[in-house]
Automatic annotation (TrEMBL):
HAMAP family linked: Gly_tRNA_synth_B (MF_00253_B)
Protein name as catalogued: Glycine--tRNA ligase
Organism: Pontibacter korlensis
Gene: glyQS
The Aminoacyl-transfer RNA synthetases class-II family profile domain, residue ranges: 131-397
Residues the entry annotates as binding substrate: R107, E195, F242, E243, Q244, M245, E246, E355, T356, S357, V358, G359
Residues that, per the record, bind ATP: 227-229, 237-242, 309-310, 359-362
Pfam families, alphabetized: HGTP_anticodon, tRNA-synt_2b
Length: 500
């Protein structure tokens, strides 16, 4: 079994983020005491809260805000024919190549793309474009030998051995398979789903009929997906077990571009509303479309290792439903009773589909990277640096910390009383160890938006100080106002309002 390789860290910032995530309980390597398992990670006590908040926000943005979008939770295991119909059995491949000296395996297309990026960084944009185009042509024609020759011609070397002693390029299917059934002879091969979307397609009519849904409508799903990625690098950016949040929106054929644009704009607003700076987001239209798509784009975020895909928006035509209709021999059509210009019903058709597909883990990494802040603070003559997570309060794992100034004089009791009155609505931390300054620092490091200090004055007039994570400013307010003060900042409402 492969063990956790040291993540090749592209730059210092990513390295800092990875160790921050580990040190403060966001992300641990899987099975770490056994040296880890490559490209698999566990979310710790802070990570699980942040991830749940991201998923919850996405879920509510889809289902609660849109009357015509409903949810689904399909199984990970599906009938093997599902993956035949979807094309995954035959063509969910990546071209791989091995270096004979280091025995390391690489994705041939990624190595060429990296070479092209190098040309671009050096200012030779034309050469970069020509190289990517040539690779596109070779892959399209399934000319794997040509891809190998291109790697050799470009003098691409293995970063480990430093040689160009390459094997042939081979196609490698990314699906994990396993056996169902206890008796070997009867057992049949099934797959761990490589995407959640197919669970939605095969349930299209179940949901449409039982929910009395009218086209246009959407089905949203959050769930695990598995891909045997050849090169798994860059921390949780590319994992072998990950979570997707996908929504398939079923529309009348001919109206798909209108909906494609609508969902593209909605998703753009969503990313901006959770606090990602606009200059860190890029919308990249696909030059080359998959055979079933008639429009597609990636929403990219500028990670420390460059602009990379976080979410895909795809106009998938009627490809998937038609494929499932053919293999299952069950009709997957919708009867559209609405009237056309001539006053006739539109009748039966297989709906077209707009898909929004985002990885929960990639979103997590995006949120973490954009929140990770280091700043210099000058106090009097001295300057010190501070690291904090500038998370949107709605996403922060802990909403407030209740901190009695000292461990005596009845302050812990008063603080506990405040904690108990707020805990029904907010995830909070109560802490009385160490100096107040140290406790503030600990909360900054996990991104807690508010620190509530309980001091002797609290006992006299029922007021507390509330320290703001980002400005470090403190305001004094009555305990009775705490609930609405915190709630205003942490509720999803401010985000939802920006999506309207
Ligand atoms: P990439 O080009 O990065 O391999 P993809 O185009 O294969 O991604 P899709 O199949 O469109 O990705 O999947 C939709 C989303 O699922 C991606 O935008 C990404 O956020 C997430 N995703 C896909 N593969 C992984 C992975 N191995 N680890 C984490 N997230 C992933």
């Amino acid at each position: 079994m492969a063990t956790q390789e040291k993540t090749p860290v592209e730059n210092a910032q990513l390295k800092d983020i990875i160790s921050h995530a580990k040190e403060y309980g966001f992300i641990f390597p899987s099975s770490e005491i056994y040296d880890g398992l490559q490209a698999v990670y566990d979310y710790g006590q802070m990570g699980v809260e942040l991830k749940n908040n991201i998923k919850n926000l996405w879920w509510k943005s889809m289902t609660q805000l849109n009357q015509n979008v409903v949810g689904l939770d399909a199984a990970i295991f599906m009938h093997p024919l599902v993956w035949k119909a979807s094309g995954h059995v035959d063509s969910f491949n990546d071209p791989m190549i091995d270096n004979k000296d280091s025995k390391k395996r690489y994705r041939a297309d990624v190595m060429i793309e990296e070479k092209a990026a190098q040309y671009e960084n050096e200012g030779d944009v034309e050469r970069a474009k020509a190289l990517t185009a040539e690779m596109g042509r070779l892959l399209e024609a399934e000319d794997l030998n040509g891809v190998r020759e291109l790697i050799i011609r470009e003098d691409i070397k293995c970063p480990v051995s430093g040689t160009a002693n390459w094997t042939e390029v081979r196609q490698f299917n990314l699906m994990f398979s396993t056996q169902v059934g206890s008796v070997a002879e009867d057992a049949s091969t099934i797959y761990l789903r490589p995407e959640t979307a197919q669970g939605i397609f095969v349930n299209f009519l179940n949901v449409q009929k039982t929910g009395r849904m009218k086209v246009p409508f959407g089905i949203a799903q959050i769930g695990k997906a598995f891909r045997n990625e050849i090169v798994a690098r860059q921390f949780i950016f590319r994992m072998r077990e990950f979570e997707q949040m996908e929504m398939q929106f079923f529309v009348r054929p001919g109206t798909e571009m209108e909906w494609y644009e609508k969902w593209r704009d909605t998703r753009r607003k969503w990313h901006e509303a959770i606090g990602v700076p606009t200059d860190k987001l890029r919308f990249h239209d696909h030059d080359k479309l998959a055979h079933y798509a008639n429009a597609a784009l990636d929403i990219e975020f500028e990670f420390p290792f460059g602009f990379k895909e976080v979410e895909g928006i795809h106009s998938r035509t009627d490809f998937d439903l038609t494929q499932h209709q053919e293999l299952s021999r069950k009709k997957l059509q919708y009867f559209d009773n609405d009237l056309n210009e001539e006053g006739k019903p539109y009748g039966n058709y297989v709906p077209y589909v707009i898909e929004t597909s985002v990885g929960a883990d990639r979103l997590f990494l995006m949120v973490l990277c954009s929140a990770y802040t280091e700043e210099e603070i000058t106090e009097g003559d001295s300057t010190k640096s501070r690291t904090f997570l500038k998370l949107h309060p709605a996403l922060a794992p802990v909403k407030a910390a209740i901190l009695p100034l000292t461990k005596k004089d009845g302050l812990p009791e008063k603080a506990t009383e405040i904690f108990d009155s707020l805990k029904y609505d907010f995830n909070m931390i109560y802490e009385e160890r160490d100096s107040i300054g140290k406790r503030y620092t600990r909360q900054d490091l996990i991104g807690t938006p508010f620190c509530i200090a309980v001091d002797h004055q609290t006992l006299e007039d029922n007021t507390v100080t509330v320290r703001d994570r980002d400005t470090r400013e403190q305001v004094r307010m009555p305990i009775s106002e705490l609930h609405s003060y915190i709630n205003k900042a942490v509720s999803y409402r401010s985000i939802f309002e920006q999506l309207a």
